[in-house]
Task: inverse folding
């Protein structure tokens, strides 16, 4: 791909400057030399692929060497929070999520990207899904990150098991229809009726549960920041989720997060699973016991027409970074149409980072490789619940599967532990929500001016 003269000039400068990253991650710089930019990211398969392709393609083309630090998600978040809060400048680029970006931007920890986008004629910002752009835009209207990949959520179901019992999946199911189907299909060929995340964690059981709360009409706070976790709508949603898991979900559900339920589904032990669109490539991979047997429909809903979540891992530049031009050059490559094509050709089209650009979904090669799910993936990515208005009635925060406030990382984890205890049968839903109500009320005290 062609690169701008401005960035090429910056590359020459940063090649001399070099950034030292002592004792963190593996370096791709040849001969043990200092890397030009340092990147912190989650240790996911997409990131491993990116790292493998960087030297042979990005560095060979631009001359920029990249030092990666890839960590498990919780460790990556902890280091990123510490690094960006102190503005130490160790990492030029980090994989930030839709949750962190507005918070980091408000604190001045991220560099705006608008000028880089404007100067980079090859990047094609208009090709990026607008809802992802909105989620990565600050209150000041500036863009602070570019999506590496995005995901929505949908319902996956075993077409073979449904046929065996004469069942039909509605094209746009409600949660009550899903519960009825789970009861009917539960136990066929030893499969659980449905698999859902039960493991504590604001990014574990609360990610799907919050979409249920939204579509059932619940909200964590009213517009005056009074907690609403004991409201009838919130109780109905949580009670529904807990009862569904306890009645027709996988065994030991309170100990199972996304990876565990994915394993069960791939092994043929679940009749349905509601989770991320990004899981489809694993479900349809060679070696999966259910490859070619799965149907995909939109996220179940109740009182709203749309449900599901919107999520992205995106690239942001630390405000304190010394090599911002080279950092943008990396982001421009890693988030580009050309990079998706590179992965498709060298690794396989189902490994291409998806859910972020329109052009991927009009690519015949991707359509063929992802034929079982790409249409629903596209719909989930472009027509999911509105992050600024995901439910019924106004609320003072944004977010679909999370709350876009700094306190949510701690609050959400604490509440998720109460929900997991209810799933395990250790306490009632009412007790879990009464405890959670107190936690939520205390967490928002400063927003009420207390």
Result:
């Amino acid at each position: 791909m062609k690169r701008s003269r401005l960035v090429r000039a910056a590359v020459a400068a940063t090649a001399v400057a070099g950034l030292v990253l002592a004792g963190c991650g593996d370096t791709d710089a040849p001969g043990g030399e200092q890397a030009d930019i340092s990147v912190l990211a989650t240790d996911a398969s997409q990131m491993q692929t990116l790292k493998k392709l960087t030297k042979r393609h990005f560095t060979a083309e631009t001359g920029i060497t990249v030092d990666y630090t890839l960590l498990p998600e919780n460790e990556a978040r902890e280091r990123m929070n510490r690094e960006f809060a102190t503005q130490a400048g160790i990492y030029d680029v980090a994989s930030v999520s839709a949750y962190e970006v507005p918070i980091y931007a408000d604190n001045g920890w991220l560099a705006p990207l608008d000028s880089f986008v404007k100067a980079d004629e090859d990047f094609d910002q208009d090709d990026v899904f607008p809802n992802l752009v909105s989620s990565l835009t600050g209150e000041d209207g500036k863009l602070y990150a570019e999506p590496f990949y995005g995901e929505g959520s949908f319902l996956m179901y075993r077409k073979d098991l449904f046929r065996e019992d004469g069942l039909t999946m509605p094209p746009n199911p409600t949660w009550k229809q899903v519960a009825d189907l789970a009861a009917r299909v539960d136990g066929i060929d030893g499969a659980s009726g449905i698999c859902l995340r039960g493991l504590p964690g604001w990014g574990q059981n609360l990610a799907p549960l919050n979409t249920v709360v939204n579509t059932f009409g619940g909200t964590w706070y009213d517009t005056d920041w009074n907690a609403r976790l004991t409201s009838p709508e919130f109780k109905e949603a949580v009670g529904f989720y807990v009862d569904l898991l306890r009645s027709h979900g996988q065994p030991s559900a309170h100990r199972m997060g996304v990876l565990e339920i994915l394993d069960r589904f791939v092994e043929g032990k679940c009749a349905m699973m509601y989770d991320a669109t990004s899981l489809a490539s694993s479900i349809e991979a060679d070696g999966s016991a259910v490859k070619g047997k799965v149907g995909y429909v939109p996220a179940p809903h109740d009182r709203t027409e749309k449900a599901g979540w919107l999520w992205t891992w995106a690239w942001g530049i630390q405000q304190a970074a010394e090599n911002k031009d080279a950092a943008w050059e990396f982001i421009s490559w890693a988030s580009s149409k050309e990079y998706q094509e590179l992965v498709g050709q060298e690794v396989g089209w189902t490994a291409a980072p998806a859910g972020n650009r329109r052009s991927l979904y009009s690519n015949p090669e991707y359509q063929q490789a992802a034929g079982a799910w790409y249409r629903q993936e596209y719909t989930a990515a472009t027509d999911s619940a509105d992050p600024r208005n995901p439910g019924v009635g106004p609320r003072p925060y944004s977010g679909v599967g999370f709350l876009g406030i700094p306190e949510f990382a701690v609050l959400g984890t604490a509440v998720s532990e109460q929900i997991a205890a209810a799933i395990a049968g250790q306490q009632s839903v009412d007790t879990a929500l009464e405890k959670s109500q107190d936690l939520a009320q205390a967490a928002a005290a400063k927003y009420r001016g207390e």
User: Anything to note?
Assistant: Residues 1-32 have pLDDT under 50 and may be disordered. The CA atoms of residues 139 and 328 lie 22 Å apart.
